[in-house]
Design goal:
The complex is a heterotrimer. Chain B is of the alpha+beta class. Chain B is built from 3 helices and 5 strands. Chain B has a 5-stranded antiparallel beta sheet with strand order 2-1-5-4-3, with helices on both faces. Chain C has one domain: P-loop containing nucleotide triphosphate hydrolases (Rossmann fold). Chain C has an 8-stranded mixed beta sheet with strand order 3-4-2-5-1-6-7-8, sandwiched between helices. Classes of the chains: A alpha+beta, B alpha+beta, C alpha/beta.
Chain lengths: 288, 115, 267
C-alpha cells in the first residue's frame, strides 16, 4: 500500500524544480567513483625513483621538471660548487644575491645541509638543499615538510649523479657560453671569463630585441683573425660560440655548429622549452 | 665617390640600402630607400658595433671587422672601414650572405681609400 | 592449520599512517596484543611522545622510566620495558625519536638491537604526520604497515608515506583499513589496493566494542575477543604471521555475525 501511495506522490509532485528521485545507492556510487578517480590520479603522479634516474640520464632538465612538478615548486635550479647552474626548471633565474647568500650560509655553517627561507606574508619561500658539492634551490609557495625535504634530497642526489654534467663532460672543441636573458651563465666551455661574456652578450641581445624589427635570429661578430663569435637566441637562453672559417662559409659553419651544440647541450638545457611565462598562460598538457 | 660605391653595393641582390657612419654616429654618406631612417640606423649601428667590439675584445678574438645581425625581417651588416667609420648595409631576410659579405668588404676597402 | 612461514630473526614493522586520527594507536595496541597471544615475543616501541592513549589501552601507568632514561645512562633497558596484556612488551620513548637519534644514534641502535635479539616482532608505533620522528621511525624499520581509513584524504596521505618508505628502503608489507562501515561512499578494499598498489591485509570495522574496551582500559582483542573488530585484528596478526585464521562465530547469531560474515565471507 505504501509503495503505491509513494508512486502516486511522485506522479503528482509537479512544480518541484526538476528534482529527480535518485536512489541513494546511485549517488553514493558516484561519490565513490569520483573519489576513486581523484585518488588514482594522485597515485599516478607519484615519482618512481628508477624512472627518474633513467630520465635524468637522457635529459636532466626533464628530470628536474618532474621533480619540480611533483613537489609543487615554482622554479628550481641546481648549481655546482662554483655557483654555476647545472640544471634548471621553471623558467627565470634566481637573483644572484640570493644564490650567493645561500652559498655563503652553507659555507659558514659547514655541517648544514638544508636552508629554509620562509615568509609569513605573500612572498615566496625558498628551500636550499646541499647535496655533496651541488646545491638545489627551490622556490615554493608553501613550507615543505620534513618528508618532502627528505624525498627531494634522496631523488635529487640520484638525478645529479645520473646526469653528471653532460655539457661539461662533452668534449667539444668549440668554445661556448650559454647564458640566460639576465646574463647568468648557464653553461660554458673553453672560455676563461664566461661571466663577462654572458653579461655583454645578454645586454647586446636585449638592446637588439628592443630596436630591431622582427625576431632576433643571429648575431655574428667576425674579427681580423678569421674567427667569428656567433650568438643564437633560444626561448630562454642565448648560446654564444666561436667558429673559424672563411667569410663565404661562415654562415653555413655557424648553422652547423649551432645544431651540434644544441644536441650536446640537450641534456642540460631544454633549448626548445617554452618559457614559464608562456606556459602559465596556457595550461600545460600532461607530459607523456 | 662614396655614394657611387654605395650605389653599386645596393645593386647586389638582396641589399636594400647602405650608409657610411662615423664613429660618433653621424652619417657620412647614404644610399637608402625612403622607408629607412638613416639617422636611427646609424645611431643604433654605432652603439651595437661598439658593444660587439667589447665582446670580441673580452674573448681575445682580435679586432672586429664585420658584424651581422639577422632578424626575421631582415639583416643588418656593419663593417669596419677604419677606426673612424663603419659601413652599414640593410638586406632582405633571405639575402645571399656569402656574396654580400664579400662585396661589402670590397666596398669598405674602397671607401677607406676615399676617406 | 597452515604452515607458518619460516622467519629468521625479528621483524621490525613501522605502523604508519601519515594522517592523524586513523586509529593507528588502536591498531598497534591490538595488533601487538594479538601477535603476542599467537606467537611469542612482541615488543612495541612507542615513539609517540604523548603516550596517554597507548598507556590507557594497554593497562599502563604513566611510565616512570622511558627509553630516554636508558640512553641517558640512568636506567637499564629492561627497566623501560612494561608488560601489557597477553605478554606484549611496551617500551615508551619518552622524548622524540629524532631527539634520541640525534643525541645518540649509536645507543638507539643498541637498544633496538637488544630488543631485536629477544623479540619476534618489534612494532614501532610511529607518530602521525611525516616529520622527522616519523622519518626516523620508518628508517629504523624493515617493514611498514599502513593504517588508513577508507576515504580519500587518508589514502592520499598514505601514498606519501609509501613514497618515503620506498626511499628509506622499508618494504611496505600491506595496509590495514580501519573504521570500515561498508557505507556505499567508502572506497572498497579492491579500490584501495589499486590506489596504493599494496595488499589490504585486514579491514577493521567500526565497532562500538573498541570504544567500550578502551573505556575499560583494555584492548578489544582481550575485552571482546569475538567482536568484529577483535576478529579483524586477529586476522591481521595471522596475515603477518602467514597463518590461517579461523573466524570465531559468536554465540549469538544476529547483527554481529552478519557484519563478520559480510567482512570475511564472499561479497
Amino acid at each position: 500500500m505504501a509503495r503505491i501511495v509513494g508512486k502516486f506522490k511522485r506522479l503528482f509532485r509537479r512544480g518541484e524544480e526538476g528534482t529527480e528521485e535518485r536512489l541513494p545507492e546511485e549517488e553514493a556510487r558516484e561519490v565513490r567513483e569520483e573519489a576513486l578517480q581523484r585518488a588514482l590520479q594522485i597515485a599516478s603522479k607519484q615519482l618512481e625513483p628508477d624512472e627518474l634516474v633513467e630520465t635524468a640520464k637522457r635529459d636532466m632538465s626533464k628530470a628536474l621538471s618532474e621533480l619540480r612538478e611533483y613537489f609543487g615548486f615554482e622554479r628550481m635550479v641546481v648549481i655546482d660548487r662554483d655557483g654555476k647552474p647545472i640544471g634548471m626548471s621553471g623558467g627565470g633565474s634566481f637573483e644572484t644575491e640570493l644564490i650567493e647568500a645561500l652559498r655563503s650560509v652553507f659555507e659558514a655553517a659547514e655541517t648544514a645541509d638544508t636552508i629554509i627561507v620562509s615568509s609569513e606574508s605573500e612572498g615566496p619561500n625558498y628551500l636550499a638543499v646541499k647535496i655533496n658539492d651541488s646545491i638545489a634551490i627551490c622556490e615554493t609557495k608553501t613550507t615543505p615538510s620534513d618528508a618532502d625535504i627528505f624525498m627531494l634530497r634522496n631523488d635529487l642526489s640520484m638525478v645529479i649523479e645520473s646526469a653528471s654534467l653532460p655539457a661539461s663532460t662533452e668534449e667539444t672543441d668549440t668554445p661556448y657560453v650559454v647564458t640566460d636573458r639576465q646574463g647568468l651563465v648557464v653553461a660554458s666551455s673553453g672560455v676563461s671569463n664566461p661571466d663577462r661574456i654572458a653579461a655583454e652578450v645578454s645586454r647586446l641581445a636585449d638592446f637588439l630585441d628592443e630596436h630591431l624589427v622582427g625576431e632576433l635570429e643571429w648575431v655574428k661578430l667576425t674579427t681580423d683573425s678569421g674567427e667569428t663569435l656567433a650568438v643564437k637566441p633560444y626561448k630562454d637562453v642565448l648560446v654564444a660560440f666561436v667558429v673559424e672559417s672563411d667569410l663565404e662559409e661562415v654562415d653555413e659553419e655557424c648553422e652547423k655548429v649551432a645544431k651540434s651544440l644544441a644536441s650536446s647541450l640537450e641534456g642540460l638545457i631544454d633549448l626548445t622549452a617554452e618559457t614559464s611565462a608562456s606556459k602559465s598562460k596556457a595550461k600545460p598538457s600532461e607530459e607523456g | 665617390m662614396i655614394e657611387k660605391v654605395l650605389a653599386d653595393l645596393n645593386r647586389v641582390d638582396g641589399v636594400h640600402g647602405s650608409l657610411v657612419v662615423s664613429s660618433d654616429g653621424l652619417i657620412i654618406a647614404e644610399a637608402v630607400p625612403p622607408d629607412i631612417d638613416s639617422e636611427v640606423v646609424g645611431a643604433i649601428a654605432t652603439t651595437v658595433y661598439g658593444s660587439g667590439e667589447r665582446v670580441v675584445d673580452e674573448m681575445d678574438l682580435g679586432e672586429l671587422e664585420q658584424m651581422l645581425i639577422e632578424s626575421s625581417e631582415g639583416k643588418v651588416m656593419i663593417i669596419a672601414i677604419s677606426d673612424e667609420a663603419t659601413l652599414v648595409l640593410i638586406t632582405d631576410p633571405d639575402a645571399n650572405l656569402g656574396l654580400i659579405r664579400l662585396r661589402a668588404q670590397e666596398a669598405a676597402e674602397e671607401i677607406a681609400k676615399q676617406l | 592449520m597452515a604452515e607458518s612461514e619460516e622467519r629468521e630473526g625479528c621483524r621490525v614493522i613501522c605502523i604508519a599512517s601519515g594522517k592523524g586520527g586513523t586509529g593507528k594507536t588502536t591498531v598497534t595496541a591490538n595488533l601487538g596484543t594479538a601477535l603476542a597471544d599467537m606467537d611469542g615475543e612482541v615488543f612495541i616501541l612507542d615513539a609517540d611522545i604523548a603516550m596517554a592513549n597507548l598507556g590507557l589501552i594497554l593497562q599502563m601507568e604513566d611510565a616512570p622510566v622511558t627509553l630516554h632514561d636508558v640512553l641517558a645512562g640512568e636506567a637499564e633497558v629492561e627497566e623501560a620495558v612494561y608488560e601489557g596484556p597477553k605478554g606484549v612488551k611496551v617500551v615508551p620513548a619518552g622524548i622524540s625519536l629524532e631527539g634520541i637519534r640525534k643525541a645518540n644514534p649509536e645507543r638507539l641502535r643498541d637498544v633496538v638491537e637488544w630488543i631485536v635479539d629477544q623479540a619476534d616482532f618489534l612494532l614501532i608505533d610511529g607518530p602521525a604526520g611525516l616529520g622527522r620522528d616519523a622519518l626516523t621511525a620508518l628508517s629504523a624499520s624493515t617493514e611498514c604497515l599502513l593504517v588508513v581509513n577508507p576515504e580519500i584524504a587518508s589514502i592520499t596521505d598514505a601514498l606519501k608515506v609509501k613514497a618515503v618508505a620506498e626511499r628509506v628502503g622499508t618494504e611496505v608489507t600491506g595496509t590495514a583499513v580501519n573504521r570500515v562501515t561498508k557505507d556505499k561512499t567508502e572506497l572498497t578494499k579492491e579500490e584501495i589496493e589499486k590506489i596504493l598498489e599494496t595488499k589490504v591485509l585486514a579491514e577493521i570495522p567500526e565497532d562500538p566494542e573498541v570504544r567500550r574496551a578502551a573505556a575499560f582500559g583494555e584492548p578489544v582483542v582481550v575485552r571482546s575477543p569475538k567482536s568484529a573488530a577483535a576478529q579483524a585484528f586477529k586476522k591481521l596478526a595471522a596475515e603477518l604471521l602467514g597463518i590461517e585464521y579461523e573466524i570465531e562465530v559468536p554465540d549469538k547469531e544476529g547483527i554481529l555475525s552478519r557484519i563478520i560474515k559480510g567482512l570475511f565471507g564472499k561479497r
